[in-house]
Amino acid sequence: MGTRCLLVLLLVLLVLKCDVQGDDMARQDEATGPTLLSQMQESLYDYWGSAKAAAQDLYKKTYLTAVDEKIRDMYSTSTAAVRIYTGILTDQILSMLSGDS
């Protein structure tokens, strides 16, 4: 129990150290102004956000309930089949490892 408490304490201290170090770096970055990397990152985030919004709008416009029901049915059927074959494979492996003929 003592080892777990020590490990948890070390993890908490590590997280706090990283948080404090990150705050100091953020203050330094604010003082120097936006760099080229941060500008590029912000631009990419903006492009990603607009592409994501466009994809969501397109999905909402083309949403068909019949297709959604078919996809859900196919998913449930395929997961049931995979579950069955996984059980069979597990039984075969266990019987091979136990040495039963």
Automatic annotation (TrEMBL):
Designated name of the protein: Apolipoprotein C-II
Chain's role: Component of chylomicrons, very low-density lipoproteins (VLDL), low-density lipoproteins (LDL), and high-density lipoproteins (HDL) in plasma. Plays an important role in lipoprotein metabolism as an activator of lipoprotein lipase, the enzyme which hydrolyzes the triacylglycerols on chylomicrons and VLDL.
Keywords linked to the UniProt accession: Chylomicron, Glycoprotein, HDL, LDL, Lipid degradation, Lipid metabolism, Lipid transport, Lipoprotein, Secreted, Sialic acid, Signal, Transport, VLDL
Ranges annotated as spanning the membrane: none
GO cellular component terms given for this protein: chylomicron; high-density lipoprotein particle; low-density lipoprotein particle; very-low-density lipoprotein particle
Signal peptide interval: 1-22
Family membership noted in the UniProt record: Belongs to the apolipoprotein C2 family.
Subcellular location: Secreted
GO biological process, one term: lipid transport
GO molecular function: phospholipase activator activity; phospholipase binding
